[in-house]
Amino acid sequence: MSAARTVHSLLLVINFVFLFSFSHSCEAQCLEACGFNAIYQFGDSMSDTGNSIIEFPQAYHSRLPYGKTIGKATGRSSDGLLIIDYIAQSAGLSWLEPYENPNSTFKSGVEFGFAGAAALPVQTLLKWNIPPRITNNSLDIQLQWFDKHLHTTCNVTQDCQEKLKSSLFMVGEIGANDYDAAFIQGKTIEEVKTVMVPAVLQAIKDAVTKVISYGATRVVVPGIFKVGCAPALLTLLASNTSTAYDTFGCLKNYNDFFAYHNDHLQLALEELRKEHPTVHIVYADLYNAHQWILDNHVKLGFTSIVETCCGKGGKYNFAMGMTNMCGAAGIPVCSNSKGHVFWDEWHFSHEANKYLSEWIINDMLPKLQCSM
Ligand SMILES: *[C@@H]1O[C@H](CO)[C@@H](O)[C@H](O)[C@H]1NC(C)=O
Ligand SMILES: *[C@@H]1O[C@H](CO)[C@@H](O)[C@H](O)[C@H]1NC(C)=O
Ligand SMILES: *[C@@H]1O[C@H](CO)[C@@H](O)[C@H](O)[C@H]1NC(C)=O
Ligand SMILES: *[C@@H]1O[C@H](CO)[C@@H](O)[C@H](O)[C@H]1NC(C)=O
């Protein structure tokens, strides 16, 4: 009895400490309350759990040290898990299997995200002199895959609608690759704002409208993180004026640009909510989740916020060129990946993804209104 009570009060103390050490707290399985039968994810390398390595088996992220924290390389662009893995776990589902892998069983939904994917089709980007990316599997192509997948699993006009009612749709993060390519191509922020942002937002709106037409009732649309803090952007678009940088060492004008995209994305989602009042369309605020990590990085155990863990050279532990990048022969890996927000030049570490997903799940859970 007394031992049980001691354990009980100890648990209370632990709970107390836990609650006060995180501004956001949610039990590991909190999305389970939604009873999702499946998750369908569209996006780029932020969510790709193994599609791109089917088409590009030689890609660096098909082998170690990618995946080293979970003991094997899976095609995820991280040392371990991605945000979508933590979201699936929280929903009580297994990790999403990639659409392109013939061995996938799709028991918990489908991962359509593809590393390098853009929101806009390759032809649209070419029109603006943005050269073809390593992949053409943009958002519209991923939606075609979704349509194909449905035709093999349910009757699209009938029981798919019923099945998808209880599913979670994740449309994004997507669009960062379009913008990054434009900036690296020398486009100015003003140009990208005027020409590309409306097109990217329309592509995302079209994708949301499309999944709703198939029967989606809960659609989460993530914004873009603070890419102005990513080692690749900091290296490729470095500024020679110190005032261009914020106190974390990030490029302010690029972060402002991504905030601009996010603000307009939220306005677009507001329009979609008016058109589809019975559908829960939820914005996932990756930008502020990332900001929360920056603000609390010391407490969270991060010692490096703008340098890669896996990479070599320059101010940010990253240099251009295939032989210098994470995964190439002889490229060093930091001894403590947990201390790094970024794993490689564009991608978050396993540890950062854990905190980002925790923040996002806490933020989106009430908005999904699962108990109603
Ligand atoms: C599918 O499974 C087989 C048998 O385990 C394996 O040999 C093959 O490499 C797998 N294919 C892919 C693309 O993972
Ligand atoms: C991608 O699209 C471009 C332009 O339409 C085409 O030339 C190229 O072959 C495509 N690449 C792949 C891998 O399909
Ligand atoms: C799908 O449902 C529609 C409407 O009930 C029906 O007409 C059609 O035959 C079904 N198709 C298949 C492949 O079962
Ligand atoms: C800083 O960079 C700009 C453009 O990148 C260049 O025009 C300018 O001369 C540079 N200034 C210095 C002090 O290097």
From TrEMBL:
Residues 1-28 form the signal peptide. It holds the Pfam family Lipase_GDSL. It comes from the Eukaryota. Keywords: Glycoprotein, Hydrolase, Signal. PANTHER family: ESTER HYDROLASE, PUTATIVE-RELATED (PTHR22835:SF675), ZINC FINGER FYVE DOMAIN CONTAINING PROTEIN (PTHR22835). Belongs to the 'GDSL' lipolytic enzyme family. This is Uncharacterized protein.
